[in-house]
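Revision sheet: structure tokens.
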Amino acid sequence: MIEISVTEENIKLAKQQISDFEKTDAGSWRYTNVEAWRGIVCEMVVSTWLSDNFEVSTPAKGLDTSGIVDDYDLIIKGRKIEIKSATKNYFSYIMPKVDDVDNHPKDIYIAAKYNETVEPNKVYLIGFMSGEDIKKYPKDQNKGAPYYRIPIKDFKDIGELRFI
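Predicted:
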């Protein structure tokens, strides 16, 4: 697991992306009282770490306000990468939407967790899993769209991630 410190600038930029996104048609349905900005922080700081450690051809950009659904968060050596995050420290699952996994497949899913209980806040870059392995997990649904329910502990250690 890799520990990454969160800056006030990370938080400010993520909250601005959420605010801009909520003004679009796609963003108008978002749930209230959700700390979605933490997911954006995770995506951006993990993307930076990946860019520092791998040859990233297309870096992550966070939320897209164009209304076009993206097919991935970033590309490394031709592989589509999706960064998924648990937005509170006590969360123990990563829950990608079934529609995204099944109809917009990624090669690799990266798991991250936001820790709001320490100062400065931290993002833990936990691990990775193939898109095919994600589909082996049970589907669940609480609010909104159905999702795959994947225990964070099941992701392979990020230190084992290699691109050949």
